[in-house]
Amino acid sequence: MLKMIERFKLTTLLFATLLMAIGLLFLTCTEANQLLYDVAALKDAGSLAVKLQDTRAAVSNAIASQLSDETQRLLEEYEGASEPSADLRKALLSDLNRHIQVGPLYDAQIFADIELSEQTQALIAQNPQSGEALVRLNRMLLSDAYPYELASLSEEKKVEDKGLEVCRENLRRIKLALEKYRIANADTNPQWLSDLSPEYLEEKVLLCPADTTAGVPGVLTEGASDPTLPCSYLYEFRPSVKMYQELLWTQEGDMLPIVRCEHHLLNLSVGGKIYRNGPQRGIYTSSKTGFSVLHDFMQELRAQHGEAFLKTQKGRQQLKQATEKLIIKQLVPNMLSALEKEVYSQLEAELGKSILNTAMGMDILKQGTVQVRDQIKENLQSQLETQLGSEFLETAEGEDINQQLSALIDAFSLDGR
Question: Nearest 10 degrees: CA dihedral of 391, 393, 394, 395?
């Protein structure tokens, strides 16, 4: 009898242990399931789809390569401006949830350009390989990479930006108007968005519903406000930056923004795709070129120290340092590099590489170099004078900037390829 009682106790203990293990396993699965994406967590499916199409971004390339064949097919069919289909939304959710459960997503090289939150970094240090902690980390990584497309775990519900869908519809209409304008004008872009109205676009479409100023000129960066009509949107091919943007176009392709909404951080690309800002690529992140950032820096100095400060030696030194960093070291070298590739490739296509290697070809390259140099120098010096003022350019600091600019441009050449 005692043996039977002991055996019963042992069996009961084993059964209780088994139930506890099953309970813990069920609890772990339940907690992990609560971390998965649902419909509300997909904040902007269209923007996410567009960025997954753009596989030059390291994170998007890593994720897109793991999508199912069906999801990849749906992505290829999506044109990037309309509301994504229910099938595409469902496929993205299914693949994302599978992706965050199968293994670690973190790779230092893939996430090198992403600013990770402190919570994400702390969990990376723990190096979870499975279970609830891994799912949590993977979701946090994706939220850091796609902050406007995927809800973070701390977001309790989907928050709609005021007027976002109306703004998105405005960009769709601007897209169609640009297409009609190009057809009617030998495939060229307008000087300003106001050129689209009234023939191709209603004037009211140029106003974002979140713009409390109703498109008052001067609200955007100086030199970017449409001179004809009230406009809430930043046009990236306006005359002052058109040459630089066209050079970027040769590098970035149809993903390069042509219109931006600074209120919703929403972009219309040259190729007609609509997506949100984000940390993955430079063209996603900022709408401002070197001269725009320089102008904002000057405005900040004026606000902090007053207009007279810019005329002091300390003020001039700060302007010189900012101009060297933003224009001399960043904008101009990038512009010249893109221009060299573009002009040479055009000549090669028209004349043939074999001709360019002859004496006649070298002479053509030298003549082209001189013409391009003159055009660039005139354009950049004009913009420097507009931004910094002729008085600054006559100072020692201004003369040094001009000398550095001239040296950069004089070193530009189309030969030796």
Answer: 100
**What sign has the CA pseudo-torsion 41, 47, 52, 56?**
negative
Residue 33 token pair: 């399931």
Dist. CA 61–CA 101, nearest whole Å:
18
Please spell the DSSP secondary structure of 223-282, one letter per residue. T-S-SSS---SEETTSTTTHHHHHHHHHHHGGGSEEEEETTTTEEEETTS-EEE--SSSH
- Burial class, 108, CB count within 10 angstroms (exposed 0-12 / middle 13-18 / buried 19+): exposed
List phi, psi (to 5°) of 112: -60, -35
Look at residues 231, 178, 237, 174 and name the one whose alpha carbon lies nearest to residue 208.
231
Using the structure block, give the residue that is written with the tokens 């040479």.
Answer: 344
Nearest to 401 by CA among 389, 387, 384, 377: 384
Global confidence as pTM: 0.72
Q: Are 281 and 289 in contact (CB under 8 A)?
A: no
Mean pLDDT in consecutive groups of 10 residues from the start of the chain, 417 residues = 48 44 40 80 95 94 95 96 95 95 93 92 93 94 95 69 89 97 95 96 95 80 82 90 77 90 93 94 75 79 89 92 87 76 70 76 76 78 84 92 89 64
Angle subtended at Cα 96 by Cα 90 and Cα 97, rounded to the nearest 5 degrees = 90
- Residue 205's nearest CA partner among 217, 216, 193, 188 is 193
Q: How far apart are CA 70 and CA 408, in angstroms?
A: 50
For residue 207, the SS3 value is: coil
Phi then psi for 268, rounded to 5 degrees?
-105, 125
Length of the chain: 417
